[in-house]
Amino acid sequence: MSTNLAAILGGAAGAVALVGIVGLLIWFCLFHKRGVSRTSETGSSDPSVQGRHIGVQLSLREARRFELRELSLATKNFSDRNLIGEGKFGEVYKGLLQDGMLVAIKKRAGAPSQEFIDEVKATCLAFIALIMACYLSSIQHRNLVTLLGYCQENNQQFLVYEYIPNGSVSIHLYGVGQVSAQKIEFKHRLSIALGAAKGLAHLHSLSPRLVHKDFKTANVLVDENFIAKVADAGLRNFLGRIDVAGPSSQVTADEIFLAPEVREFRRFSEKSDVYSFGVFLLELVSGREASELPSSNSTENLIEWVQNSHDYSNISSSIDSRLGSSFTAEGMEEFIRLTVRCLEPSIERRPTMSYVVAELDRILDKEMSLTTVMGEGSPTVTLGSQLFRATK
């Protein structure tokens, strides 16, 4: 009797779960946010630069479901020659679809769990995968890498993204054998920072809001025009929803980019994204990984050193020497002050991403006017110990 009862209860629970998942799928497909949208000069919807929250209308479309055969053909059977990287989801392959489109295909790592193989749970998980793929692929923004679709066959899972040719910002900053960073002036780095900030701010303006949870320099890509695009938006949510339980729900991102509350309590929020963005800004201005020590006799990493420094002029020693004289003293100081604010250990003291967008936009405009069109005899660029001299 107990066995029969357990079987009945198990079947009922599975049915209820399946109905719930179907209901959630329907809700996602019908959901949209009615609100005011603002189109920027770049043709994308961003929060107001005045810091006002503006709802963004989200029109959901069904994600394209690729066949495994199609992806195998695109990557030449997942050839090592097409392997371009590896991330949290798994290996990343460059692929050429039959219609001529270049794509980045992420192949999920690891063998499927026993829960995944279980028939009822596998059915539910397939629906969840569809929901998340549908939701994430509907998020369209100039500064976000677009999720084109997914594939789920033979207990294997793949995500298909648009291909971004110039790769990650991290490669251009501190990649081995790269000389590209020598060409990235301060204005260009500001532009990259602004683009990435707009991408994150867009995620935070959605309804329901989407927290990235895995923002880092390696997840900021640049296209052929060096326009920044944030990658892997919502990927941690995707993994967490697909897996019934297990290590995928644990914090596995690069520790240095995680906010204190995430490392200690695993509490993700928009403000934890802001902290991660602060680490990104620090790497942009220093040209090196934030986990490095600022000097040979230091016991603190770059983040700890900046957080514990009470004299902004000391921080100037961490500025990337490859920037040369491509910045103004005032612009650099404002950039560093914004970076320090984002890196505040206290959640309440960190700014919002909409504020960060406004500040970066303002700093970039000022830098463009002062370093591009200079009045005769006006000293606009300073280095080293002179950096904060005339800005008090």
Number of strands: 8
As for the CATH topology, it is Transferase(Phosphotransferase), domain 1
Task: Give the helix level as a range of percent.
Answer: 40-55%
Estimate the strand proportion: 5-15%
Which CATH class?
Mainly Alpha
EC number: 2.7.11.1
Main location: membrane
Catalytic activity: L-seryl-[protein] + ATP = O-phospho-L-seryl-[protein] + ADP + H(+); L-threonyl-[protein] + ATP = O-phospho-L-threonyl-[protein] + ADP + H(+)
Organism: Gossypium davidsonii
What features would you describe in this structure?
With 392 residues, this protein is α+β, with helices and mostly antiparallel strands. Helices cover 41% and strands 10% of the residues. The strands form two sheets. The protein has a six-stranded mixed β-sheet, with helices on both faces. Strands 7-8 form a two-stranded antiparallel ribbon. Helix 6 runs antiparallel to helix 13 and helix 12 (329-342) packs antiparallel against helix 13 (353-372). The radius of gyration is 23 Å and the shape is globular.
